[in-house]
Amino acid sequence: MLEILKPYILTFIPIFVAVDAIGNVPVFISFVEEMKRAQRRKVVVDSVLTATVLAVCFMLIGKWVLKLLNVSIFDFQIAGGALLFIISVRLLLPGTQKKNFFTNLNKDIGVFPLGTPLITGPAVLTTTIIMLDSFGMMATFVSLLANMLIVWLAFSKADLIIRVIGDNGTRIISKIMYILLAAIAVMMIRMGITGAFIK
Q1: First CA to last CA across the chain, in angstroms?
Q2: Nearest Cα to 165, choosing from 30, 44, 41?
Q3: Interatomic CA distance for residues 115 and 2, integer angstroms
Q4: DSSP 148-195
Q5: H helices within the chain, ranges in order?
Q6: Do 163 and 37 touch, CB atoms closer than 8 A?
Q7: What letters, b where the CB count within 10 A reaches 16 and e where it falls short, cover 32-45?
Q8: Residue (of 72, 46, 64, 41) closest to 148 by Cα position
Q9: How far apart are CA 102 and CA 107, in angstroms?
Q10: What global pTM score does this model have?
Q11: Rounded to whole angstroms, how far apart are CA atoms 178 and 22?
């Protein structure tokens, strides 16, 4: 029995670390703090659906597409990090610019930046390809879906977290998360550059 489950366990853990469902909850809260419940539900569905579809598609045709376009995972890291950094800086700016930015972003915030690159980013894409080569399609696919279910559960219960910490607590977390988002962006760029030029 253990031997049958072993590939699933060995694929689940690395993908779980790469997806970082729990770690993304504060970032999710910081983006949806001013939304109504129905809007938050839509963002949850959009983000998980986007992340899942992207990860599954990349698992199936990722190697072929990257080879065709001559694009590497490191290029994804640099580009995704640059976009996240721009978003985090604009969200940290005071005044109406931030409000207008949120108004435009709310339309597809579940797709970007939550669905990608925060949930399914370079780390998930890379890990998925490695797990696919090591343990096969079935184990990787099941582990990926299990992790996306965890993301959905974590984001769906964010309402409870918002109620517990209150409005002031949410605002404080939001500010911290915007700074953390900038740090994550810098890390992605650094890792991309390191991977591309120091092999």
Answers
A1: 40
A2: 30
A3: 33
A4: HHHHHHHHHTHHHHHHHHHHHHHHHHHHHHHHHHHHHHHHHHHHHHHH
A5: 2-19, 21-32, 37-69, 73-92, 96-105, 122-135, 137-156, 158-197
A6: no
A7: bbeeeeeebebbbe
A8: 46
A9: 9
A10: 0.75
A11: 17
* Token pair listed for 111: 């797709």
DSSP letter, residue 37? H
List pLDDT tens digits, range 15-64. Answer: 998 888 877 888 888 888 778 888 899 999 999 999 999 999 999 988 78
How far is residue 181's CA from residue 187's CA, in Å, rounded to a whole number?
Answer: 10
CA within 13 Å, CB half, 143:
28
The set of residues, in sequence order, having a beta carbon less than 8 Å from that of 135 and lying 6+ positions away, is: 7, 10, 11
DSSP conformational letter for 120: S
* Closest by Cα among 44, 22, 78, 56 to 141: 56
Say if residue 138 is exposed, middle or buried (CB neighbours under 10 Å; 0-12, 13-18, 19+): exposed
